[in-house]
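Recall that a protein's primary structure is simply its ordered list of amino acids. Everything else, from secondary elements to tertiary packing, is in principle encoded there. The following example makes that idea concrete.
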Amino acid sequence: MKIASYSNEKILERLLNNKSDSNYWTYITELRKRKTKDIYAKSVSLTQSKIVKEKNIGIDVMAQFGYPRLHKEKTLKIYFNLLKTETDISVISSIFYGIGHNNDNLTNKQIDIICNYKRHRSAKIRYSLVFALLAIENIKAIETLIELSSDKDADIRNWSTFGIGAQISTDNEEIRKALWARIDEPGQDVRYEAIFGLATRKDPGIKEVLKNELLKVDDLGSLLLESIEAFEDKDFISLLEQQIAQNKITESINEKWLLDTIEKLKENQ
């Protein structure tokens, strides 16, 4: 039987009683799509439970309830009320992910509240905090992402660097300094996010870095090509053509991607 044919009660029963989490997000997504008052009311009720699993279910359903989103203001109010007393790591993380799905109109006070978790001992909370702050053009939010971009956890560094590099248009010395600090990252994901952020800001120093990365054919990825496109320097046309002429094409990068990038650079000449 398809999940879409299940009653609200049956899906909630599965969520509450299943020992396995294998279908957890499938059930959550189905409830979000149904947009009925009783589902939202039940979710609100679950957020008040003393049982962590029940509380997380309520938070997760509300996070993206309705298409388009419904009850956003009420949902945020519930989330921030929960943060006043909540100590469980998984619940706080769920709240932050929920905030991240509804963060386009956060107040300065709300941003200050969540930024206070930036040095929490739990990497899970710091990671979800990054998600809560993505795409927010706010000084405190940006400062927090800058700090988290040097976190000891690589995943947090990666997402924070993505946050300040690609998700905001703000450009200042602090942001560029933070991005440059990630250029020598051993991990390609973080390094490429930093490169992209500097390339989109047309930082002149990134040109040589782009050239050097381009020569590392085995490591060449689509984000690097996007960075080259964003930098809009015609000198890369010949360099990319050389990659094709020398048949330096790997499984990670194909000729069509290179040709598309060349074409875009030519259009901007």
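The two ends are 57 Å apart (CA to CA). The chain has a mean pLDDT of 93.
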